[in-house]
Write a structure and sequence with these properties.
This protein is α+β, with helices and mostly antiparallel strands and 94 residues long. It has helices at residues 3-13, 19-38, 84-91, and strands at residues 43-45, 49-56, 59-62, 69-72, 75-82. The radius of gyration is 19 Å and the shape is elongated. The model has no long low-confidence stretch (mean pLDDT 94).
């Protein structure tokens, strides 16, 4: 599912809201999650999961095409851990 499909689905479930308003709401939520992660905060949505950031140290990598060694700088990457309720709902049919 892409963001436009999510907006469409929410708009269908809430006919009292205009689609542009739903799109603004979805964008505001995603922007706030990104802003919190940029500050180094953790974002937890109960029943869904938690977003956090992890620091990766600098290292020496390898170019898979040429085999040459390349320096990979340290960086911060987003990390998502599913919540217990989501795992249970996904594995209910298994």
């Amino acid at each position: 599912m892409i963001k436009s499909e999510l907006v469409q689905k929410i708009a269908e479930q809430n006919p009292q809201l205009y689609q542009r308003d739903v799109e603004n709401i979805v964008n505001a939520i995603l922007d706030e999650i990104v802003a919190a992660l940029a500050r180094g905060d953790r974002v937890e949505l109960r029943g869904f999961g938690a977003f956090s950031v992890k620091a990766r140290n600098a290292r020496v990598g390898r170019n898979p095409r040429t085999g040459a060694h390349v320096a990979v700088e340290d960086k911060v990457v987003p990390f998502f851990k599913t919540g217990k309720e989501m795992r249970e709902r996904l594995n209910k049919g298994a």
